[in-house]
Amino acid sequence: MASDAPGPRSALRVPWGFGLLFGLVAAVAGAALTLAAVVLDWPGPGLPPRLLDASLRTLYEAHGVGVAGPPAVVGAGRLPEAAPALVPVVVLLAVGYAHASGYVGTSARQAVLAGATIAVGYTLAALAGVVVLGVSASPVVAALAFCGYALVAGGIGGYFARS
């Protein structure tokens, strides 16, 4: 449980800068865990071909974003098909919790807001995946899906940090 004492970032009314940082951390953690899920689920010997492409495709599809190209490999081996869909939710809950526990406000509303600010960095990472890494998805759809996931799951994580 969080205490009522002000946290180290409690002087900020809305911690957008820290939300950006924590959102980027959530995106990297989500990508790393999705990559691990793709490797664990690969039924063949060695590593799957085009590992980065397969893991990014799986991550975007876990957010409901359609990606052009060959089908994802997750669901073909040892992990349940729902495993990749749980990765972003679990990561965002944990990062929203971690962010809001450092920003202890006077109300649950402020804790939810602090947790939800991770959407800033998480959405930028989704756009970077489309533009820089070449994920074949609509940038608008990717931004909206990643932002929605981060707002909801990050906010719930923030609420748990407060209660």
In short:
Helices cover 64% and strands 0% of the residues.
List the topology elements.
Elements: H1 16-41, H2 51-62, H3 83-102, H4 108-116, H5 119-131, H6 139-162
Calculate Rg over CA atoms: 17 Å
Stretches with pLDDT under 50, minimum 5 residues:
none
Main sheet characteristics: none
Total strands: the figure is: 0
Helix content: 55-70%
Sheet-strand content, in percent, reads under 5%
Category from helices, strands and their pairing: mainly alpha
Q: What do the pLDDT scores average to?
A: 82
Give the SSE string.
HHHHHH
> What is the count of structural domains?
1
Distance between the termini: 6 Å
* Shape, per Cα inertia axes: globular
Overview of the molecule:
With 163 residues, the protein is mainly alpha-helical. It has one domain. It is built from six helices and no strands. α1 crosses α5. The longest helix is centred in the N-terminal third of the chain and has 26 residues. The model has no long low-confidence stretch (mean pLDDT 82).
Task: List key phrases describing it.
mainly alpha; globular; 0% strand; 163 residues; single chain; 6 helices
